[in-house]
Write a structure and sequence with these properties.
Elements: E1 2-4, H1 7-11, E2 16-21, H2 25-38, E3 43-47, E4 51-56, E5 66-75, E6 78-87, H3 89-118, H4 127-151, H5 153-175, H6 178-185
Antiparallel strand pairs: 1-2, 2-6, 3-4, 4-5, 5-6
Helix pairs in contact: 3-4
Amino acid sequence: MEIKETLLDSVRSRPRFKIYSNLSREKYTQLLKDFLTEKNHSYTGNINSETALIRVKNNNTQFWKPCLALRTETEGNKTVLRGVFGPTSAVWTFFMFLYFILAICWMVCITLWYVEKQIKSSDFPWALTGSFIVLFLLAITYAASQVGKIRAKSEMQKLRDFAEESLRTFEKNQAAGFSEVSDEAS
């Protein structure tokens, strides 16, 4: 098992990682389902043939409830497990919507201010003030996302450990002859 993580991964709002394995995608999917059932007291999730979405169970629900999206791909003769940490898709979409709307509002305000200055008009005296307000709202949105990310760091580490532990368990089972036994039983 080989794990790759770069400095950029720790800076991103949705950190990523890659794990290379000798397991086939189908075996990994089945073993991941079994592993999730075994760890059911701590984790919950949905698993299908190409993707899995894993969450940590807890009583403290926050707006930035992290989840781990796993995608299995084949590169050459190895299986690549790509993991992406982040909030639920609803929260992620909401934050992207806020960034998009606020960025457009800022561009409109700053353009109105610039055009007003170029034509020496005073039709939009609020444009410069509006652009600073929108920048402040963007900063608040970014700060809220970072606070959520920091508060969810321990759960994100648990999810990372889940991904690594699941592959280590699978590779140990495969080395011990588990894959031959499961092939003969089917």
